[in-house]
Write a structure and sequence with these properties.
By secondary structure, this protein is α/β, with parallel strands linked by helices. It has 14 helices and 20 strands. The longest helix has 25 residues, at about 180-200. The relative contact order is 0.11.
Length: about 525
């Protein structure tokens, strides 16, 4: 785990293996950002021209490494692009700082300590930089041999893989200031739990299955004072959870429904977060074709996000009650698997005709939504890698937001933007509901193909308790990144929606949610 320290040391005198400075795109070439004055001075005021000579222009995510001149104790200078320079009297956005710090941290893998001299005007800037650096330094190494011979110069001895940046020191901060200390504490708690969510998403399904995921949640609950309840197959059958059981009945590893309850004695509001936790999705009898199932260990990303958000809320001691529901199952084909045409009786009592067993996420979520509604929370938010249709609509980097309340949907969208997560509000058109009419059951789990992401949202809406504010986040696009890393986003599990959920909990705790 990468360490974080706040430092009052100057950029010229700090003892580190590298010093990170910002560079922006100016009207006439690269511009050295605030925080790098001492470094620029060591270059005789010519750092921008040196970078331009090397082809650097300050574009977002651009990283240029330079040997440090005399006058700096750090041997290496890392110039990272911040994008367009802000207008006069304006500042760099939190997201530009976050992404720049993440790009620099990734470029510094194998390094023990890096000092970040990026623009900091307030504690919020320090928090954004810390968050980006700690997320950018992430690496999933659990299945890589780090004990082989070699292991020098930041490498693990197994094919020369470099270990993540070990320590981030933020320059230009005030370590004794309450706001800066709080910013550091929040960024550490948030990124540690978000990175744990990434670990869960990246863990192979032969090791992460419903029972083992429930065990992780139970252990975290004991550590952070969260009450955890686990319903196994017998309890699910006794309770009539037909959706979760129907999805999981074809797998050797049985399903689970996990409830995590964080409470605060001064809380006046309660939030319920629900996560889709399909630890492997083969599609069931409606089997996915080759090329579509290799990354389906990520189909529990919603549950990982909910788990991380609840633990973060507990670690931060937020004055709000947060309940997390993890609807966990494997969706596998077998002689006992649910068939297309079967009818499931859900926990709510409604019957669902299963037309496609690969539309299984909505089935486990439906049971969890009904159960969560029984506790009458002030709001429910479910998170799921639910539909490929949402990826087609919004691409791989943003999630869709649907809700039964337009104002709440807008709030979620605004909070996601504040958190640095790209999202977009989506409608729930009533005309699409008719497509799920079934001649056999109360509703079918499939409807019209066009607008499939919206159809899935309409299905979930059917299982939300009357009068309860609800939102649905379809994170199918951004939950698992298969391309090259960028900013603070790694290849593999991303931890999508964690920051948005935490922002919602903080907003609710402050009393500003309404």
């Amino acid at each position: 785990m990468t360490a974080l320290t706040l430092s009052t040391a100057g950029a010229a005198t700090v003892r580190a293996d590298a010093i990170v400075v910002g560079v922006a795109k100016g009207a006439k070439g690269p511009v050295v950002a605030a925080g790098a004055e001492a470094v620029d001075k060591a270059f005789d005021g010519k750092l921008a021209s040196v970078l331009e000579t090397l082809g650097a222009g300050g574009a977002e995510g651009e990283v240029t490494k330079l040997p440090a001149p005399s006058g700096l104790k750090a041997p290496v200078v890392v110039a990272v692009g911040l994008g367009a320079a802000p207008e006069k009297d304006e500042a760099y956005t939190a997201e530009s700082l976050r992404r720049a710090a993440g790009s620099a941290a990734r470029a510094l893998s194998g390094t023990k300590k890096a000092a970040f001299a990026l623009p900091i005007e307030a504690a919020e800037d320090a928090e954004a930089i810390a968050e980006g650096a700690l997320l950018g330094a992430y690496a999933f190494t659990a299945y890589q041999n780090t004990n082989a011979k070699g292991g020098k110069d930041g490498k693990d001895g197994n094919g020369g893989r470099k270990q993540p940046l070990a320590e981030v020191a933020l320059l230009g901060t005030k370590p004794r200031d309450k706001a800066f200390k709080a910013a550091a504490e929040r960024s550490i708690a948030l990124t540690e739990e978000l990175n744990r969510a990434r670990d869960l998403v990246n863990t192979p399904p032969n090791d992460l299955y419903p029972e083992s995921f429930a065990a992780v949640a139970t252990a975290a609950g004991k550590e952070h004072g969260i009450k955890v309840q686990v319903l196994d197959e017998k309890a699910l059958e006794k309770g009539g959870y037909g959706g979760i059981l129907g999805v999981g009945q074809g797998a050797a590893n049985g399903p689970r429904l996990v409830r995590l309850g964080y409470t605060h004695p001064k809380a006046e509001k309660t939030l319920a977060f629900i996560g889709k936790g399909i630890t492997y999705d083969s599609g069931g009898i409606s089997l996915k074709p080759a090329g579509h199932n290799e990354t389906m260990k990520c189909d529990m990303s919603g549950a990982a996000a909910v788990f991380a958000a609840v633990v973060t809320a507990a670690r931060l001691g937020l004055e709000v009650n947060v309940t997390g529901w993890l609807a966990l199952a494997e969706n596998m084909p077998s002689g006992t698997a649910t068939r297309p045409g079967d009818v499931l009786r859900m926990y709510s009592g409604k019957t669902v005709e299963v037309l496609n067993t690969d539309a299984e996420g909505r089935l486990v979520l439906a049971d969890a939504l009904t159960k969560a509604s029984e506790e009458n929370p002030d709001a429910i938010v479910d998170v799921a890698t639910l539909t490929g249709a949402m990826v087609l609509a919004l691409g791989h980097r943003r999630f869709g937001i649907m809700a039964n309340d337009d104002a709440f949907r807008t709030t979620i969208h605004e909070l996601a933007e504040e958190a640095g997560e790209d999202s977009w509000p989506m409608p729930l058109p009533s005309d699409l509901r008719k497509g799920m009419d079934s001649p056999t059951a109360d509703i079918a789990n499939m409807g019209e193909r066009m607008g499939g992401g919206l159809v899935a949202g309409l299905f979930l809406k059917e299982f939300v308790g009357e009068g309860i504010t609800w939102a649905h986040l379809d994170i199918a696009g951004p939950a698992f990144h298969e391309g090259a890393p960028f900013g603070y986003t790694p290849k593999g599990g991303t931890g999508s929606a964690v920051r948005t959920l935490v922002k919602l909990a903080e907003r609710t705790a402050s009393g500003d949610l309404g």
